[in-house]
Amino acid sequence: MSLTLATPHAEAPVPALAPREQETLRHIAAGRTYLQTARHMGLSKHTVDAYLRRIRAKLNINSTAELTRLAVSLGL
Q1: Where is this region: Disordered (predicted)?
Q2: Which residues contact 13 (CB under 8 A, 6 or more apart)?
Q3: Where is pLDDT greater, at 30 or 71?
Q4: Most buried residue, 16, 31, 35, 71, by CB count within 10 Å?
């Protein structure tokens, strides 16, 4: 199941996030560090960093605060 986002100011829907990207976003938004997230998901912190870079690129987001706001607004 992928998550498709639509923003009120965008003309086209935002690209979908993969399930593992959604899970990573949920952990980071909950205040976990990259290392804590990696351990919980059974990944390396480099993989968590890669997921977050992909999320930021897909959604054109530059900060963790913006990621967190998005996650909260989506109910993640």
Answers
A1: 1-21
A2: 4, 5, 6
A3: 30
A4: 71
For residue 14, report the phi and psi dihedrals to the nearest 5 degrees. -75, 145
- For 4, the token pair is 């498709």
In a domain, 13, yes or no: no
Q: Which residue has the higher pLDDT, 6 or 43?
A: 43
Residue 36, domain member (yes or no): yes
- Residue 28 C-beta-side C-alpha neighbours within 13 Å: 25
Q: What are phi and psi of 44, to 5 degrees?
A: -85, 160
Does this model's pTM top 0.90? My answer is: no
9 found inside a domain: no
How many separate domains does the chain show? 1
Q: What is the CATH number of the domain that holds 48?
A: 1.10.10.10
